[in-house]
Amino acid sequence: MRTFRARGPQCAVSGRRCEALRRISGVSRPSYSRSESAAVWASSNSVPVTISMKCKVEYGESLRLVGNLPFLGAWDPSKGAQMAWSDGNVWKADAVVPVGAEVDFKVVRAKKDGGEVVWEDGDNRSFKILGPDFGLRVTCHWGRPGEMKVDAYPVQQQQGGAEAGSSNGAIGASSHNGTGAPRERLQVSGQSSRSGSSLASVSMDSGDGSSNNGNGRSGTSTLARSSLEDESSSRTAWVGAEPEFVRSRRKDEQSRGGVWRTEGLSGVALELVGGDEQASSWLKKLGLQKRLLVDESPACRPGLDAMSYLYVYATWVNTGALPCAESGSHYRPNHHANLALAMFRSLEWVIGDVTRGGGARSPSSERLILAARRMHSRLPSFSGQFRASTPLTRIRDIAHRNDIPKDLKDEIKHTLQNKLHRCAGPEDLVATEAMLQRVTAVPGQYSEAFVEQFRIFTEELREFFNASGLVELLTGAGAVDALDDGHASAVRQLISTKQRVEEMGQGARLDDLMALLTAATQARSFYAAGLVAGLRNDVTDEILSMRQRWRLADIRLEEYSFVVLSRIIGLLEEMGAPSKLPRASNLQWALPLAALTSGLRHMGLSLFDTRELLVLENELQRWHATCPLVETREAALRAKASLERALRVATEYSDMVAEVYGGSAAALGRALGLPEHMGAVFAEAEVRASMAFQVSKLAAMLARALRTAAGQEPWDVLVPGEATGVLREAAQLDAEALRGPAPGGEEGVVLVVRRADGDEELGPLGPRLRGVVLLQELPHLSHLGVRARQDRVTFVTCDDEDTVSRVLRPLMGRRVTLSAAGDSTVTVREASGPVASSSSSSPSAAPAQSSAAAASAAAPDGAAAAAVAAAAKAGRWGDVVVPLERAVAATCGSKSAKCAALSSLATASGGLFSAPRGAVLPFGCLEAAVAAAGRGAEYGALLARLDDPRVGGEELEAACGEMRALVEGLEVPAGMVQQAVAAITASSAAPAQSQLQGGPRLLAVRSSANVEDLAGMSAAGLYDSVVGVPADDAAAVAAAVGEVWASLYTRRAVLSRRSAGVPQSSARMAVLLMEAVAPDLSFVLHTARPRDGNRDVLLAEVAAGQGETLASGTRGTPWRFEVAKTGNGAITTLAFANFSTALVLPAKGKPVASFASYGSGAAAAAAAGNGNGAGASDGNGARRSVALVEREVDYGSQRMSADGDWRQATVRQMAAAGSYIEKAMDGVPQDIEGGVVVGPDGGLALHIFQTRPQ
């Protein structure tokens, strides 16, 4: 092996590789590489390079390679190549670099918080890439740049003699276009290790020595030259009448039929349908669109409704579903172009306005961006040649040529020339394409000069209708020459890769398609980055024309990438990836993950949820680089959590598309008399043609493989049992889904619920609800999970669409039996025989009786409440406010009493955990405030209405609203607030270490009713808590107290007490004010396993940030653990967290714009910056946290996911605290809420916030 040290001048050359896709700035960085894993290269012109650095770093630090080449970030440390740690403090990164490239680099230490990097001292390191037969291993030591060693090795020798033509990708395969035979087996060669050979060609099979696909053929199939691009435009295929070629002038005005129903329409829909009746020609239809988009929109900014309807309308016009007819007027195509220019400008203003804001992700803004981008694709071109007074004149010259027959001349003149110049329409492009096919069908039939001119004209017309091929769009009018070097290089790379892959035919393999997808994404990233800057009002028409070309390039590259990704997924399926990936090496996982990352990147380039997509990409890279994904059960579960997160993001995008276009397409289709299916399936077609659709397919495939590898079922059982009833599907868990007769007289219902927010009540739904199948993950210890167990409703979740489609959907509307065992075994079968009561446990009288008994046992002390009222009336606030340590259930509620006990337990625990200090506004304070306001009679009358069982529906909603308004309008005495705050500060000399440094003391203002936190009646999450209230803001504290008081009378709370048999007049609300903790992690413990009551097993669920995420049932999973309370205390990891965001207390600093260029430094900063605040209460008991913000969570940097030893130690400490508290509570199983604060040194501080009987 040869060793040398290379020096010399540097040259920034970009190499090609199958990799996770690049940042929008146009530079690349290694992805899915790990210290030993294989580098993936695309051609013999590139070679693998491994750079290793020995360096010991502090916790939270990592190393990056920064240098002159794109994959090194072009000297931008934020975009450098991330190195992966391995044993011995050796950091490595793999890359594929072009032969002859000279590499100049340094190494930097990066902090996990994204702060400043530390550059290594000394000169740059330099080396040059050898010829194509040699790979390089570069070895360095931190701080010793002069001691770099470069080892060269023969690539062919390392490959172990892999066949020339075998795959060079992470998973090699050939492609097919539906006619050739798929390749079922892939070759494997090279050395293997824990992560795979450093240069192995990879296979999904174990290998049997065969090299064909079983039919004697080589296992490759044809990829048509233009098939990918043809597929990308298939959604807009012509559905109108076939072109009619005429040889004489036809009437300028044509009669047309149509339907224009305006009944039930309003707003844009009404104007559009009425306007179309008067708009026969394409020009008039464009004018109608311009009027609604521009002229009648405030400040020329159309709203979502206008863009939604007009996109549907323009799609149907452009595809011939709504035919155009000549109107009798003569207007050249420049009029069409000028209308398009005005609409384009307005649409760009819409995008610019919503991307100019800062900080918070805004779903409404994302809908506007979606609608504006899609509308762009339906406009004609307005480039200078089409805005000229006489555009498209070439067809006139063609029509007067003397080298073609007269009949053909007449057809061209009357079908194309005259029609275009007086009343152009999309049908003219269809006719021109048909004519081109005719004149080229028989080679030599017409002169080459004529055919060439007709081809050129066809290209010009395609450009006018924005129907040019992708290459023509990217390169036309000298577009590439006007780009900067990096952008131009990316476009040329795409074009050459596209040509190579589409010409390979049977030679096209999976890694070739991946290289094409990478090139398309790279090119798109440059266009998207250039479009992020808003549009100035004074921009010239020429600049607008160039911007339209860029906008269309952005859209078309997304559509093209959609098809390429679809081909990749198809090949993976044909190769048996779903069944083989559970046993595959990390090398075999590399390309599917890179393809998925590419799809996610495209969604981000479309300005959808950019921050989450950034952190999700980081997660996937981290897990793949850490260890083989299927090496252990925990590794598989961890990667599965991130893939399910990706699937969730894709589903959110699909839901957004369906929401934007579903209603408008159906309404418009009916109004215009189109076939019903055109309106009904329009939104679904848009969803299926979106990148999110391919992302969801691939993410689901990979998640299923990891679920198999982890030995996990697709079902999750929250409440075991057996329930029989009619299987119904509903959007949400409410009484509406249970109404209506059931076949066969069966009254029970097993409800399949698509979404839940975690705060629903089951008891008020009545005895017909026998079982629930929720189609999303749900924390076991969320409020909904707790209530399901209390109400004894069989409750399971399933988020695997394949299982739902296979098991549940065929049985919809039939009577079924749902059986759920504690080991997550679930069966759903059609029920037979006579109707019987469910052994499951429909909500029965038993829970209500125990709830009423519990509430009766905790009845407030009437004499004490009267004394409080008297003290309040006299202003003796010291006699009103109760220090937390003196709180008892009879005067302050069970929650306050248990928090008081926790304070004593914390002191006696020897540092095992802490408990926050607090003060209580006891029972009687609310009633005293009502009396002081002189509204006692009104308050009593409203209580009587709420207690009346005859008051329901809208009348109950109105009564609850009146009561809440009354309570929230009460004056909370300032003296009482000051006394409470003083009691807290007196018991705690300084803010807890968990408080924000340098900020005010923050409070959590919490409910402590006499009808919650009781054995048999936990009322978990039923009443409001307000977190993060500044203690020095008396008005804010008073408002929070009023909100907690009012939450006693939400509709959900009233119905819950009715269901439990508790009179409304018996309910009392105390308010617990506690010093707020800002935990890094929040947890909920059930000291007896909930699904079977096993007291020897503790269940823990953990989430990043505040515990609201766990309690509310936010979509996603927490970290979930079972801990044996006997023996060696074995910890079993059941799930890894994948909640998208964490609720945290706000940090100092300005928020970063959430729509910064995707992948740029600003967007990366936004991912770690402030998010949006939690929403306000909706009046139905939705929890509100006024001072909390949402931040996207990168689980790759969360120690609970990334560090197994730390995870075990942390969970063990939680379990120890849970067992300690359970023992102190006389051995009664407890439901415990707490938080973990991680100190700068990595040490843990456990805080227990409350405990209640489980």
Strand content: 5-15%
Counting copies of identical and different chains, the oligomeric state is single chain
Q: Give the number of helices.
A: 40
Topology, number of strands: 31
Radius of gyration: 34 Å
- What summary fits the major beta sheet? 7 strands, mixed
Mind sketching the topology for me?
Blueprint: E1 2-4, E2 46-54, E3 61-67, E4 81-82, E5 84-86, E6 90-98, E7 102-111, E8 118-119, E9 125-128, E10 134-141, E11 149-154, H1 155-159, H2 227-232, H3 267-278, H4 282-295, H5 304-318, H6 333-355, H7 363-376, H8 384-387, H9 394-399, H10 406-423, H11 426-440, H12 448-464, H13 470-475, H14 485-504, H15 510-531, H16 541-574, H17 577-580, H18 586-605, H19 610-626, H20 633-671, H21 676-680, H22 682-688, H23 691-710, E12 715-719, E13 721-730, E14 749-753, E15 769-774, H24 783-791, E16 794-798, H25 801-808, E17 815-820, E18 826-830, H26 845-857, H27 862-874, H28 877-880, E19 882-883, H29 889-892, H30 894-908, E20 918-921, H31 925-932, H32 936-947, H33 953-968, H34 974-987, E21 1002-1009, E22 1025-1030, H35 1034-1046, H36 1051-1060, E23 1069-1075, E24 1081-1086, E25 1097-1104, H37 1108-1112, E26 1119-1124, E27 1131-1135, E28 1141-1144, H38 1161-1168, E29 1189-1192, H39 1199-1202, H40 1204-1224, E30 1230-1238, E31 1244-1253
Parallel strand pairs: 2-10, 13-14, 14-15, 15-16
Antiparallel strand pairs: 1-11, 2-6, 3-4, 3-7, 5-6, 7-8, 7-9, 10-11, 12-16, 13-17, 17-18, 19-20, 20-23, 21-22, 21-23, 24-25, 24-30, 25-26, 26-27, 28-29, 30-31
Helix pairs in contact: 3-4, 4-5, 4-6, 5-7, 5-20, 6-7, 10-11, 11-12, 14-15, 15-16, 15-18, 16-18, 16-23, 18-19, 18-23, 19-20, 19-38, 20-22, 20-23, 27-31, 32-33, 33-35
